[in-house]
Amino acid sequence: MTHTLAICPRIVEGLYREALALSEDVRGTFSASGQMSGQLAPPARPASGTKVPTTDEDRIRIAYSRVGLATTTRMMHAIAWLLQHRAYFMGEIGEEQLRRHGRLAQDLRHAREGREEDEALLDAGITRLVARTRTFYARLERLDETWSLSREEAAAASAIERLRQRIEGRLAS
C-alpha cells in the first residue's frame, strides 16, 4: 500500500500565505487591550464551583488574555511548521532535520480543553476567529500525519529494496 505525498511546495506556500493572513487577524484582535472593550460579549454566569475574580470585567479580561495567548501560540506553531517545510522544499534543510524538527506540537491538544468557559465571555467575532485557527491547525495536523506516514513508508520501501538487492547479489555470487 503506497500513499502519494499529500504535501508539495505549492501546498506549503498556499498554507503559509493563509497562515500569515490568519495570524494578522489574530494579532489585530488580541494585540492591544485597549481594543478589547468593543469586542467583548456581556458577562455570562460562572459555572458552579469556579473561582470567580472580583468583577465581571476582570473575568472577561482574564478570558480575553487566556484565549488570546492560546490562539497566538497555535498560530506561531503553525507558521513554524510551515517554515520548516518551506526550508525543506527550498533545499535549505535536509530530510533528517525536517524529521527531527518539523513536527507539529502535539501538546497543543490540551490547550483546546477548558477554553469554552473563557470563550463564552467573548464576542462572537473573537470565537469565530479562534475556531478558524483551530480548523487551520487541524488541517496542518492531518497533513503532518500523512506526510510522516508517507516518509516512513518510503524509508521502509527503500530498506526492503536494499535488502532485496543484497540478497540477489549474494545469490548471484
TrEMBL record:
Region (Disordered): 32-53
Domain of life of the organism encoding this protein: Bacteria
InterPro entries the UniProt entry points to: AraC-like_sf, DUF1465
Name by which UniProt lists this protein: DUF1465 family protein
Originating species: Novosphingobium mangrovi (ex Hu et al. 2023)
Organism lineage string: Bacteria, Pseudomonadati, Pseudomonadota, Alphaproteobacteria, Sphingomonadales
